[in-house]
Amino acid sequence: MVFAAPLVERGILLNVDGVRSYPARRAMVDILKQFQTLPAYSALREARDTLTAQLPSLTGDERLQAEDLLARISSALSPYYR
Q: Which superkingdom is the protein from (predicted)?
């Protein structure tokens, strides 16, 4: 099944509603990787850029989890297409 725009997954990954856990966000990375579509690839790149910009303001466990999420996204992006 191919989705044109992974809007729900993107929203969870970016935590747009502020209630998503890091395990849920990590799962979205795996799902977006499996889509193998340009919109899913774009969502992963957007999340990478957003998290990178947020890192300086994070501390403690939140920073560690964000760094882990960034590493997972980087791994999913390189290479993205199988």
A: Bacteria
pTM for this entry: 0.90
What are the CA-CA distances from residue 32 to residues 1, 14, 28, 56, 65 (Å)? 13, 12, 6, 26, 19
pLDDT in tens, 67-78: 999 999 999 999
Between CA 38 and CA 75 the distance in angstroms is 17
Closest listed residue to residue 46, CA positions, set 16, 22, 23:
16
CA 50 from chain centre, in angstroms, equals 9
CB atoms within 10 A of CB 14: 16
| Spatial contact of 46 and 14, defined as CB atoms under 8 Å apart | yes
